[in-house]
């Protein structure tokens, strides 16, 4: 994987050097939309539990550097919320633990463009993200609420709601995330300067959300899809 | 160029996706559902403890060092050899000797070791200089009760006999004692068990005739605890307002240190028309265990309540099926069953009394000499406080 990333960076540099001799253009813009995150982990020790993908939000600045008529480099520094949830099933339905984690993310993608007026683009990328803040909330059965029913020998438990901010633990939490991305989308020129666009991107973390050691023996990787609308202004 | 670019980007995206799907999850410690040897069995036990034990953030046991130290020892054992099976019990004893969970117990299934168990909290108690065997208060305390007291028994679904007594002392103190908590189960049972009579008489006196009494004594000594539903059942008959008696915390993932935040623990609103102002003394000792401790602690939050006797056992973490919290008690491939708390409980002062035990307000130890001469100094102290 390290070699693939190295190759990608070398390719970007080569294209950048090549572009300096052509008519390079810089465009700026903004984008916003929603994110869908899933935590990829082995569900060992999670009985009657469903790993749920959760919807969040994303927003960012767009900086595009046109390399050739058919290629551009794009970076979209911004905010992405990466949420996930563990929902209990069966008799425990209604109980859940949800995690909302907010990241500052810096992706770099190399996009290949095709099409005439309506342009389509597609490309791979890499990204890094910093875990800014987080919160945990959920419905959990209150063990001391146990109440035995007249017609049953089992206890019923009342669900209690809780919410708290995540307190970072340097021994547990991996605040820096690195990974690869893939993006595709389309751009439509409103006039010579302005374009509107729609993009779909996928970010796959290659670093675990929790540090992996004997205390946390199972890796947890964020897999995040985003869909954004964008407005782009050409500086040239 | 356009075509080449498209082919290139599709190829790169495909390769990156492939790399991601092939990434390894780190699984150094496996759980074997059906361990075939001691190597697999120890791996499973170690990993299950890693996931299910709820005190890792405060326990002094170095679980990583345990792995390094005992893995080679278990590797040498033969699971089909009875001498090695017995040796494994001694290893489990050594491994768990410092675990703070007062409920922690390992029971073994193989016939050669089915009579053995690992109970570190009891072993530690036995090693203390203040250790004493439980006193049989039922032999002495009836002498303090007025005529007409009631004693009842009930055999629980788990085949544990519970005895309870209620009556009066000097006509002006209401007395209640029980050896365990499955009171609601007894009341809900169709059969006519005599425990029902004791419970309804005590609750009826509290609800309807409390003005007759100068105080109440609830004796939770030698009380082994029991069903969690008795917490609300018992306390709702002694209170009006819900009691906030501390917090609970649960596991929030399969990492050793993944926990939920502390969540407030509160009883349901009580059945009395108002809170009791009558002095209430709860008698506790080293054998006030589990739910009995939690009930004593919950009562202690009330202004009219004092605890008299010895520090409680120190098994305050509640137990339920593993599936509820994905934590607590677990099986190791049919070889052994490990009983351990499902959640951590801390009192309103934010202290976790697991292993330490909850201290009484008035500490008083009974001497064997006094007890053998029919004197229960703790009960006498409770009577004096009320009078």
From TrEMBL, chain A:
All copies of the Outer membrane protein beta-barrel domain together span: 24-208
> What name goes with this protein?
PorT family protein
Its organism's taxonomic lineage begins at: Bacteria, Pseudomonadati, Bacteroidota, Sphingobacteriia, Sphingobacteriales
Q: Which UniProt keywords are present, listed alphabetically?
A: Signal
- Superkingdom of the organism of origin: Bacteria
Kindly list the residue ranges recorded as spanning the membrane.
none
Q: Would the keyword Isomerase be found if you checked this record's keyword annotation?
A: no
Q: Which Pfam families does the record cross-reference, listed alphabetically?
A: OMP_b-brl_2
Q: Which residues form the signal peptide?
A: 1-24
TrEMBL record, chain B:
Q: Which Pfam families match?
A: Peptidase_S41, Tricorn_C1
Q: Give the signal peptide, or none.
A: 1-24
Q: What are the record keywords, sorted?
A: Signal
Q: Which residues form the Tail specific protease domain?
A: 157-365
Please give the name of this protein.
Tail specific protease domain-containing protein
This protein's species is Mucilaginibacter pankratovii
